[in-house]
Structures are given as structure tokens and as C-alpha cells.
Amino acid sequence: MKNGAPNLLELTDLWDESQLGLLEQFGDLPMTVYGIPNKLGDVEGLKKRFPWVTFGMHGFECTPYECLTWTEEVARERLEIGLSLGYAPLLLPPGWVYDIETAEACKELGIVLRHSFMSKVFVEGMRAFPGPDGYRVQMKCMPLITSLLRNNQRDWIGNHPGFKDFLRGDGGVTPLSCAVEVEA
Ligand SMILES: [Zn+2]
């Protein structure tokens, strides 16, 4: 815990059940995992197996710049499929990029848009995390995000014993609970 804000652990790019061993390493640590709906499919079984995990959507197929290719109608259609497959109302656009059409669809469907400085497109009334005022100002938590793909620079999973201790007791927040509603 830093500055009194709880740590928020997020893992991206879950598309295959063979990756679940990595999730098991964390024990019952509350976390948010972004799955790729068109590859991973239904998450109802996973929610029963990992009830402490919030499963968000990482695009629909996680192709590069996927959300930039979505019209509002396509975005709505893809996101509705994700919701029907059991995903939480939470979208992390692949490559962190999206435009106003995806933002409008999220607003209509009540989906929290997990964005970064890479794309900051907001419509009034939508819910976003961390939101237009940015990371530092109204951060209710300290996000730690990495991919379930191992990489040498950010292999938090490889170092999970220490990482787990670091997070112990600080979990329980999610991008859903920390999201802000965008004002005019
Ligand atoms: Zn990805």
C-alpha cells in the first residue's frame, strides 16, 4: 500500500485455459483479469473456480487496434456478446486505443472503460477508470497491470511470492469499484 491507496492487481491477455496455472499461483488474491472473449469463451465456470477474480473484457479478439475498427454498432454487438458470456461490464481496449464509438457503446451498456494516457476519449455520463482527471488526481487505488504473457521486464508472475506479500491485505478494489462517472 502506497499513499494509503489500496493496490489493484490487473492481468491482461487470458485467452486459453492453459494459462490458469499462473492464476492459481496467486492463491485467492483479489484481482482483475482481462480475458479475450472470442478466444476464451464463456467465463461462468471460471467465475465459480476463481470467485475472487473479476473477469473483464480485453476487446473481443485482441487484434491490434481492434477497438478503432469498431463502429458504435459493432462495439455494442461485441460487448453484448461479452456480457452474455459472463464477463463483468469492464473493457480494456487492446493496445489501450479506442475512439468515441466504443466510448458511446460503453456508456449505453453501462460498461466501465479501462483506459490509459494512450487514449483519453470520454462522453458525458460514461464510467471510466481512472477517468479524465488522470492517474494522479483522483486515483482511489494503485494499479499494477501486466500481461499473462511472460516477459523479462515485467515478470511479476515469476516473482509471485514477493508480489503476493506486497499485495496481501490490500486487495478487494476493482476498476469497477474505482471507476468515475464522466461529467460534462
Ligand atoms: Zn492484449
Keyphrases for this structure?
184 residues, alpha/beta, binds zinc ion, four-stranded mixed beta sheet, TIM Barrel, 8 helices
Write up what this structure looks like.
- The chain is an alpha/beta fold and 184 residues long.
- It has one domain (7-181): TIM Barrel, CATH 3.20.20.
- Helices cover 30% and strands 18% of the residues.
- It has helices at 20-25, 37-40, 44-49, 72-84, 100-109, 134-137, 160-167, 175-178, and strands at 7-14, 31-35, 53-57, 90-91, 112-114, 127-129, 142-147, 180-181.
- Strands 3-2-1-7 form a 4-stranded parallel β-sheet. A 4-stranded mixed β-sheet has the order 4-5-6-8.
- Strand 4 (90-91), helix 5 (100-109) and strand 5 (112-114) form a beta-alpha-beta unit.
- It is globular, with a radius of gyration of 16 Å.
- The chain starts with 6 loop residues before the first strand and ends with a strand.
- The structure holds zinc ion.
- Zinc ion (ZN) binds next to strand 1.
Helix and strand topology:
Elements: E1 7-14, H1 20-25, E2 31-35, H2 37-40, H3 44-49, E3 53-57, H4 72-84, E4 90-91, H5 100-109, E5 112-114, E6 127-129, H6 134-137, E7 142-147, H7 160-167, H8 175-178, E8 180-181
Parallel strand pairs: 1-2, 1-7, 2-3, 4-5, 5-6
Antiparallel strand pairs: 6-8
Helix pairs in contact: 4-5
Residues 12-13, 58, 62, 94 line the site of zinc ion.
